Amino acid sequence: SVLLPTYNERDNLPLVVWLLARTFSDSGIDFEIIIIDDGSPDGTQEVAQQLEKIYGSDKILFLFPSGTAYIHGMKYATGDFIVIMDADLSHHVRLQKQKEGNFDIVSGTRYKGNGGVYGWDLKRKLISRGANFLTQVLLRPGASDLTGSFRLYRKEVLQKLMERCVSKGYVFQMEMIVRARQLGFTVGEVPISFVDRVYGESKLGGNEIVSFLKGLLTLFATT
């Protein structure tokens, strides 16, 4: 099951759904894509409804969120594994790592092996690198990329982590890995090439950066 939160992704959504469907089909993997739209004013909801008709409701399910998108989407997920990712075409799907180590979680990393970031300006790179550096120093999480949002979870593991995670926004991804370490879940990493969004604008702003720093300090004080 792929949980795909969206906001103003009208142009990206058909492409990412097509790429996911092709990847899973070529790999012989049964799949479903759950689109959870947070009230996009740009027509994303209409596009999602059309995709549901084209692919069928057994493959594409469109939801209006009630509360946190991931929690709401997980209620409808039927797969043994759940992938969470962005809908902006920044993440490129790789499926082999979980089988290699039978991991509870597989996290995409931009900062290990041949992973990398493409299309960002210097400011975005410094923010991301700085956030990960601070996280490594304060929390020592045992993973190289804490702020990325491309991950695969065993469904039961994701449910347990969701029950304990209190953060929102960009801090959420970081807390999930920290809580996983606390609970003894295994985490594998696979290098990914993160390509900046093709259409639309990033939602990262000053408020998110402040929220991240507050969340980091809170985790440092409580873990």
Automatic annotation (TrEMBL):
It comes from the Eukaryota. Keywords: Endoplasmic reticulum, Glycosyltransferase, Magnesium, Manganese, Metal-binding, Transferase. InterPro entries: DPM1-like, Glyco_trans_2-like, Nucleotide-diphossugar_trans. Its main location: endoplasmic reticulum. One of its GO terms (cellular component) is endoplasmic reticulum membrane. Pfam families: Glycos_transf_2. The keyword Plastid does not apply. CDD domains: DPM1_like. GO terms for biological process: dolichol-linked oligosaccharide biosynthetic process; GPI anchor biosynthetic process; protein O-linked glycosylation via mannose. Its cofactor is Mg(2+); Mn(2+); Ca(2+). Belongs to the glycosyltransferase 2 family. Transfers mannose from GDP-mannose to dolichol monophosphate to form dolichol phosphate mannose (Dol-P-Man) which is the mannosyl donor in pathways leading to N-glycosylation, glycosyl phosphatidylinositol membrane anchoring, and O-mannosylation of proteins; catalytic subunit of the dolichol-phosphate mannose (DPM) synthase complex. This is Dolichol-phosphate mannosyltransferase subunit 1. It comes from Pheucticus melanocephalus (Black-headed grosbeak). The gene is Dpm1.
